[in-house]
Amino acid sequence: MTNNNWQLQPYLEERTGLIESALDQYLPAVDTLPSSLHAAMRYSVFAGGKRIRPILMLAACEAVGGDLNCVLPAACALEMIHSYSLIHDDLPSMDDDDFRRGQPTNHKVYGEATAILAGDGLLTEAFILLSNPEVWDDTSVIHCREVIHLLAKNAGSRGMVGGQAVDMESEEKTVDLPTLEYIHTHKTGALILAAVEIGAILGGASSIQRRALCRYGEAAGLAFQVADDILDIIADQSELGKDVGSDLQRGKATYPALLGINGARQRARELQRIALSSLDVFDETARPLKEIANYIVDRSF
Amino acid sequence: MTNNNWQLQPYLEERTGLIESALDQYLPAVDTLPSSLHAAMRYSVFAGGKRIRPILMLAACEAVGGDLNCVLPAACALEMIHSYSLIHDDLPSMDDDDFRRGQPTNHKVYGEATAILAGDGLLTEAFILLSNPEVWDDTSVIHCREVIHLLAKNAGSRGMVGGQAVDMESEEKTVDLPTLEYIHTHKTGALILAAVEIGAILGGASSIQRRALCRYGEAAGLAFQVADDILDIIADQSELGKDVGSDLQRGKATYPALLGINGARQRARELQRIALSSLDVFDETARPLKEIANYIVDRSF
Prior knowledge:
Helix content of chain A is 70%, strand content 1%. By secondary structure, the first copy, chain A, is mostly helical. Chain A has one domain: Orthogonal Bundle (Farnesyl Diphosphate Synthase), CATH 1.10.600. The interface between A and B is large, with 52 and 52 residues.
């Protein structure tokens, strides 16, 4: 079935609504003690954000004909981990950012101690949720251990946290392309890969489908970061919600710095092609994944 | 069977060796990228420490006649979470401690950014380990989800992290006894309770045994903190590895501050009695738990 009226924007809005109402349900209420900690955790989770990772997880599940309700808790857990990583990355001793998405960062509102603990709380909450008996049924619970393992590995010191560590070490240093790719495949790519792979597992993917989705996830994850690097240079502050060229000011290595704007765009297009071609094994059910890959790259042109 | 030659100290040393060699095996090697992050993670895990939480987990398993090998990975995961919490608690924006157990704290050696990430890495590593297929066999894997859930809940915002958050909020404030008990049952108690409950589960405890061990864990956990508060006032700096009276200087609420030294010791004895009486359902297999409860309280007299 093809649907030429299909549009990405309403799709993203509908999915964002689904994910945000699930997040609201799964996060501890503000009146749960300690209130200020839970307020801080919720502040960053609900401070905007494109929900690209959980949307990708749902879209991967959809591509293999899975049930979205089975994957929604894992999608929320992933978004909690993404939110925690932003809180910690923004801290004064890390990237020292006062604003994110146009709003004051967590530590500017709640103070550094609470921000650190809110991050710790969100990271832990992801695993509380993923191991909650209520979010698994008799069929899906066989995937519980594997999903937790995949998410934790991609979030940890050999995944996202490792990418951030190398990124911090590389500030003000001359960074070569392999190091830059290491930073990005770990810092951003690992969680995006986990998103599509978990969507595949919980959607009941065959091994061919799962491999195809992982290939998509790797390419889309890196493309996302290349596009972000380009946007950091070309976008309005208003559009990005952070200082334009802030990576450059901070002496961070970026794709445009290493390859030039045109070289970086070429790399983004190449990754886009890999992402799209990996979807060849699917029919129209992979339409959202395809359009998301296009959206990720096209916004940097 | 009674064994009057049984001695606590050699037992603790033997168990410490067992746990430390397992930790060494389970933690990412220093030559695994990023090296400096893994060095920082290992630095704090191996910077001394009494291993009281993992030892309690093993002892609970032993009390119900379980196999120690089944519980060792979970014991290491718990110790990783304890280590992460110390790294984050010591940060300048938290307790701002330069020394712990007589050695420079993580951020003094590796810098704040790496210390935050080392904590994040250790917390995540605990869940990587607990969901690793290699640490579960066909019999024990049925407990995987429950053990992860228990550990995460007790470590998170309604457990240990929540206790630390209320502790930070309460600095320089007048704190009443219920708030102090909230701080301690969460900040210290939650992880100690998780230790014995997970030991019970993985040891194959009956529901009566499990309830008894939880009662033990609650009492021993709180006793541990009351004793620590007393020690903070009476101990030599050399003995504790931190500044004497540092809680007092920081305006932290403590049991001796609220109840006086004698009142706090009375509370410790009361908790010791509860812990010991909860072990009545066991025979000699609970000897280590009994002696640990005695050791926890007696060192504050």
